[in-house]
Amino acid sequence: MKIVVTGAAGFIGSHLCERLLQNPEHTVIGIDSLVNERKIRLRNLIQLLEIDEPRFQFFPVDLLTADLQPLLDGADAVYHLAGVPGVRSSWGSQFRTYVENNILVTQRLLEACKGLKLKRFIYVSTSSVYGEKEGRITEDARTQPLSPYGVSKLAGEHLCRIYWQTEGVPAVILRYFTVYGPRQRPDMAFHKFIHQILKGDPVPVYGDGLQSRDFTYISDCVEATATALRADHIIGETINIGGHERASIQNILKLLEELTGKPVAISTLAPAKGEPRHTWADISKAQALLHYHPAVSLKSGLQREISDLKAFYKKELNS
């Protein structure tokens, strides 16, 4: 099976490529523009690039301008993870970047896929499309994004549904809930927290730290995503991918203090605009359709991320 993965050099995309290549019947075409954090994104792919994996081809191109047909030629499936992430940076004039990379690119890719004999077009979305909700969130909850980022990802979902209904593109939408683990982006909370703690600097916390998230470890997230390639009766479905442990930011910092053996000082910032107070995924649909059962505990997952970041920042920390 020939599989195209956009955003292949990203945090989740790079793990997904490695997971897909565990099947000897798979070849993977990785696409990434490498526009942001080039050094980090190339590090994410180092295991595949350095061993010169013959079943993996990487193309550093911009999906907004690239000729997509040669990249999609003969593809059996497409995973669309490429896009601009981040709630706090999506306001103001920067929203143009979100429109181009989260909406226009998605429409351009779907347009290129119509007429192809794809078995799956898997679009990776986010819990940010839900907005503020109470309790466990099911997939049929009303979508009310609180940020321009959430709006841009929801627009991508709508495009997928339109191209499935009118053009037959076999779309599946996966909504991720706060994924963490090795290779997490530097702008993400756990990466920032751990980096600051290892340096002995204060940790920036927005608001009172009582906001909570449904945290999903990277290997659990990727396992569910890989399973969506062949699962039956999921075309046209929207599926939550969450974890099995929720925690507040205060709880996380106490756990990081325990795991690193370092005291945690907090720098309190104003509450972040555009972020829900709490998230909590109802994953019963993923359990039923994907046989999804997240296995990695929050404590174990954080320990693995700490180990990864100690290696990544080794020179800085030893200087």
Would you give an account of this structure?
The protein is α/β, with parallel strands linked by helices and 319 residues long. Helix content is 39%, strand content 17%. It has twelve helices and twelve strands. It has helices at 11-20, 38-44, 46-50, 68-72, 95-113, 148-167, 189-199, 218-227, 249-260, 284-290, 298-312, 314-318; strands at residues 2-6, 27-31, 56-59, 77-80, 120-126, 171-176, 179-180, 203-206, 212-217, 238-241, 245-248, 266-269. The strands form three sheets. Strands 3-2-1-4-5-6-10 form a seven-stranded parallel beta sheet, with helices on both faces. It has a three-stranded mixed beta sheet with strand order 7-9-11. It has a two-stranded parallel ribbon with strand order 8-12. Helix 7 packs across helix 9 (249-260). The longest helix has 20 residues, at 148-167. The chain starts with a strand and ends with a helix. The relative contact order is 0.14. The model has no long low-confidence stretch (mean pLDDT 95).
Record the strand order, biggest sheet: 3-2-1-4-5-6-10
- Give start-end ranges of low-pLDDT stretches: none
* CATH topology grouping of the largest domain: Rossmann fold
Task: Kindly estimate the percentage of residues that lie in beta strands according to DSSP.
Answer: 15-25%
Largest sheet: 7 strands, parallel
What fraction, in percent, of the residue positions are helical? 25-40%
Assign the CATH architecture of the largest domain: 3-Layer(aba) Sandwich
Mean model confidence by pLDDT: 95
Number of strands: 12
How many angstroms separate the termini? 47 Å
Number of domains: 2
Order of helices and strands: EHEHHEHEHEHEEHEEHEEHEHHH
Overall structural class, as computed from helix and strand content, comes to alpha/beta
Superfamily (CATH H level) name of the largest domain = NAD(P)-binding Rossmann-like Domain
According to CATH, what is the class of the largest domain?
A: Alpha Beta
Rounded Rg: 19 Å
Q: Give the overall shape, derived from the CA principal axes.
A: globular
Number of helices: 12
